[in-house]
Amino acid sequence: MWDLSGPVEYATLFTDTSRRTCAANEEFKDCGSACEPSCRNPRPRICSLECVVGCQCKSGFFRDDNNVCVRECDNG
């Protein structure tokens, strides 16, 4: 039987805490954006309100085609 008498932290229930170590220029988010800025789409305009758990690029960084968070994109 579930005890629902107190607050429930959903992120705690569904987060794999063993994966909280992120690469350079990334940070772990319990409820990050489903539309992370990337070199291909630096300013996503339309995005769902879905929470994404995991590592995302820090503010001011973009995910490049090699899945690395970079401050400046090489569009040349």
Summarize the structure.
With 76 residues, the protein is mainly beta.
Strand arrangement in the largest pleated sheet: 1-2
Q: Do you know the CATH topology of the domain at 20-70?
A: Laminin
CATH superfamily of the domain at 20-70: Laminin
Uncertain stretches of 5 or more adjacent residues = 8-13
Write up what this structure looks like:
The chain is built from 1 helix and 4 strands; from the N terminus they run H-E-E-E-E. With 76 residues, the protein is mainly β. The protein has a domain of 51 residues: Laminin (Ribbon). The longest helix is centred in the N-terminal third of the chain and has 5 residues. About 8% of the residues have low confidence.
Write the layout of secondary structure elements.
Blueprint lengths: L9 H5 L11 E7 L19 E6 L4 E2 L5 E2 L6
Task: Give keywords.
76 residues; mainly beta; 1 helix; serine-type endopeptidase inhibitor activity; TIL domain-containing protein; SerProtInhib-TIL_Domain; disulfide bond
